Fold:
Amino acid sequence: MQATTGKCFVCGASLSKDEMKAHLLGCRGREQGDEPLFLIFVEDDYFPEIYWLALEIPRSATLADLDEYLRHIWVDCCGHYSQFTIGEAVYGRRPNPSPVELVLDEYAHVQPMDVPLEDVLTVGETVQYSYDEVWPSVLRVTPLAAYSGDVPAGGVRLLARNYKPFKPCRVCGKPAEWLYTDAWPQEAYCDEHARQHPAWEKPNAFLPFVNSPRVGLCVYRGPKDESLLFEVYPPDAEA
Ligand SMILES: [Zn+2]
Ligand SMILES: [Zn+2]
Ligand SMILES: [Zn+2]
Structure:
């Protein structure tokens, strides 16, 4: 897949990832508020040119708040373990821990995520986020700037995000809507040809081709909150 451009939700501009990083430093809110904020850029570790987004979050918010947002918008399939690795420290979170897991985490010196971002993040320094130990989705989290502005409604303000990458149906070349996950590499199909596939009825053999770095992994079907969906192709795409 080719590098994707993305959309600035502040002014509507469509830009490449590097252009967006520079653009947001000037285009961000410019509000009157005096809440200390971070402008944070998040990229997929495996496809950093394809899956990326930028958000604003209060510096007093915790790693758990950021984890919660990343889960909601991009990665949560069924409540796996997630962690931030910051220098030597690991901050982990299990929505439904077993007693054994809690003991193992303590043994591995995993710290809780109830730490303010301003205590652990530094502008310009990338930290690693990963979700799910078996089929990990790994992200790079980089604070690009620190400034003051309005408190984001709902705790996080999404500033920009990549457009949906184009993947052709392997039969007809139309934009894929499904991935057949029992094949490796996974096979992309349009809706019509997915439904004609002999394994169409098999549970979770087909997963929706959603705009997320977690696409095709575990049972990921996109954000449960529809306001976080962004299944939009770039405005200049011919598809
Ligand atoms: Zn803009
Ligand atoms: Zn899962
Ligand atoms: Zn097709």
